[in-house]
Automatic annotation (TrEMBL):
This is Extracellular ligand-binding receptor. Pfam families: Peripla_BP_6. The lineage of its organism: Bacteria, Pseudomonadati, Pseudomonadota, Gammaproteobacteria, Alteromonadales. It comes from the Bacteria. Residues 24-358 form the Leucine-binding protein domain. Coiled coil: none annotated. The keyword Transcription does not apply. Belongs to the leucine-binding protein family. Keywords: Receptor, Signal. InterPro entries: BCAA_transport, Leu-bd, Peripla_BP_I.
């Protein structure tokens, strides 16, 4: 019954008449399955930016509206969503979700229909480096190739030069394997073992034990929240002498990781996770405070700067929508090919994540660089916070 209802919700707009006085941005993300927290964060960041744009008169005399479709982490469903979005008049662009495998499957359809795809989370290097010309993908997010360098430089800074890799068996995991192996060679870090696991794999005890039996000094984790939580709990069940620091990609922050692990176990674990943004140490504190206030007011929440769920999804989507709006104004057109070209020639934009001198160029469709990455950890309440006595990721790449 739930799937039937979600299907009807996904078709609601598609079956409704299009208002000629509106422009549209699509959202294609997991909004109801295991990574819904990340998808909802992206949705809310986009909605907050759209509210601001509409309050200032909209775009080209038209109001802007978000249309959300739930792919639930399923690549085939995501591909179908893009096909449906492409049929909507006045569609400016589509925001993606957290899943690299979904985005990779969608690439041919995106470029067939010349749909501008804005990536606010999925970090797979080939999503942007996709071989298409012209390239319709633009990203404000991590890039796996760069994230690998920051993750392993963090390890080396803490004298953790023997590491085991725990990777999800998807295109995202494979992308990270290549990047981590390349970074390890450059940094003289030894990979003691590579262990693969599948989505929804709840029997991870033996895999974790196998990885730790190779005597690494740390574990590098590439996982989303459900499997990441199982890996942390599996390590906790092993003898304490086998417990190692976990240096994690950010997929674990896209779902109910803290609730699944439990605070008692989380407080005993040493977990560091890569991020690009946090409301509590944003570069523009005034804007961060303003957006957090708008968030709490709109969604009737009372989050502190430390507690807002999947903050990177909110911030990246917020900035991407404003960057898109700037491109539309500059192009003075709703033609996606013209908007695509304008995105490569944007003026400076002071965003939530950073000040973008020039967000994108014809040869660079990733707006963030390793200097924008940082390593955080979990506090006693399960919120992300600074690592004591740590340095910003920018210093790790000097």
């Amino acid at each position: 019954m739930q799937k039937f209802v979600m299907g009807l919700l996904g078709l609601t707009f598609y079956l409704s008449p299009v208002n000629a006085d509106e422009l549209f941005i699509g959202l294609d993300a997991d909004l109801s399955a295991v990574s819904a927290e990340g998808g909802i964060a992206i949705q809310r960041g986009a909605e907050l930016a759209i509210d601001e744009i509409n309050q200032q008169g909209g775009l080209l005399g038209k109001s802007l509206k978000l249309i959300s479709k739930d792919h639930r982490g399923n690549p085939a469903r995501g591909k179908r969503n893009i096909e449906q979005f492409a049929k909507i008049n006045n569609l400016l662009a589509v925001l993606g979700g957290i899943h690299t495998p979904v985005a990779m499957t969608e690439l041919p359809v995106i470029h067939k229909h010349k749909v501008i795809y804005l990536a606010p989370w999925a970090a797979g290097t080939p999503i942007v480096d996709n071989g298409y010309s012209p390239n319709y993908v633009f990203r404000v997010s991590l890039r796996d190739q760069d994230a690998a360098i920051v993750l392993l430089k963090h390890a080396k800074q803490h004298k953790l030069t023997q590491v085991a890799l725990m990777l999800e068996h998807t295109s995202w995991g494979r992308s990270n394997k290549l990047s981590l192996e390349q970074a390890a060679r450059a940094l003289d870090i030894h990979i003691t073992h590579i262990e693969w696991f599948n989505w929804r794999d709840s029997e991870l005890h033996n895999k974790v034990a196998n990885a730790l039996a190779t005597q690494p000094q740390a574990m590098i984790l590439v996982s989303n929240a459900p499997e990441g939580a199982e890996i942390v709990k599996a390590m906790h069940r092993l003898p304490k002498s086998m417990h190692k620091p976990i240096i994690s990609h950010w997929g674990i922050t896209s779902g109910h990781f803290v609730e699944s692990v439990g605070l008692e176990i989380l407080r005993q674990a040493d977990i560091r996770v890569i991020q690009t943004f946090s409301f509590f140490n944003a570069h523009n504190q005034q804007l961060a405070k303003q957006v957090l206030q708008q968030y709490n007011q709109k969604y009737q929440t009372n989050y502190t700067a430390h507690a807002i769920p999947s903050a990177v999804g909110v911030a990246h989507a917020y900035d991407l929508v404003h960057l898109l709006a700037t491109a539309v104004k500059q192009a003075q057109s709703t033609d996606r090919a013209v908007i695509r070209d304008a995105l490569e020639k944007l003026p400076e934009y002071h965003g939530l994540v950073k000040n973008y001198q020039r967000a994108f160029t014809p040869t660079r469709h990733d707006a963030l660089t390793p200097e924008d990455y940082r390593m955080l950890t979990f506090d006693m309440l399960g919120n992300l916070t600074n690592i004591p006595s740590s340095v910003h990721a920018a210093k790790l790449i000097e």
